[in-house]
Amino acid sequence: MTKPEGQVVPGASAVLFDGGKVLLVKRGKAPAAGLWSLPGGHVRAGEDAETAARREVREETGLDVVMSGTIGQRDIASASAAGERKIYRLSVFVGVVSPGRLPQAASDAAEAKFVALEELGGYRLTDGVDEAIRSGWALVQALETRE
């Protein structure tokens, strides 16, 4: 396995569902400004990844959530205008939002909304988000069949 080039920064994100819809946020700041993604961001010093994911969801959408599992980690490479490379190592969590709760965009999210899974093709997504959504949906479906 090749080591990533650049400073590795821990992060966390969440794939959150309300029925057959997934929560997306439209990024308001570089490097992914204008693209739709999952709520998430940096893990603060002394904070575990799941706590960071819940905090980021609350900051970006106003929603409080309980996570039901994780689908692992993914690396996202980014470069600043000055050429400084960073690798964001995201721990990706999965959860379900209580029905009837609507997100309100805040923090660095320009918009936040639930999108029907069959409508995702109409959105410009950040790299790897579609795969994370598919994996998260499979986990949610598996957990529901166990209940």
Please, could you describe this protein's structure?
The protein is of the alpha+beta class and 147 residues long. The protein has one domain (7-146): Nucleoside Triphosphate Pyrophosphohydrolase, CATH 3.90.79.10. It has 2 helices and 7 strands. Strands 1, 2, 3, 4, 5, 6 and 7 form a 7-stranded mixed beta sheet that branches. The model has no long low-confidence stretch (mean pLDDT 91).
Give the helices and strands, then pairings.
Layout: E1 7-18, E2 21-27, E3 36-37, E4 40-42, H1 49-61, E5 66-79, E6 85-96, E7 109-116, H2 129-146
The strand count comes to: 7
Mean pLDDT: 91
The residue fraction in helices comes out at: 10-25%
- Shape, principal axes of CA atoms: globular
CATH class term: Alpha Beta
Radius of gyration: 15 Å
Instruction: Count up the domains.
Output: 1
CATH topology: Nucleoside Triphosphate Pyrophosphohydrolase
The CATH superfamily name is Nucleoside Triphosphate Pyrophosphohydrolase
Q: Order of SSEs, N→C?
A: EEEEHEEEH
* Beginning-to-end CA distance, first to last residue: 38 Å
Which structural class should the secondary elements be placed in? alpha+beta
Number of helices: 2
- Proportion of residues in β-strands: 35-45%
What characterizes the major β-sheet? 7 strands, mixed
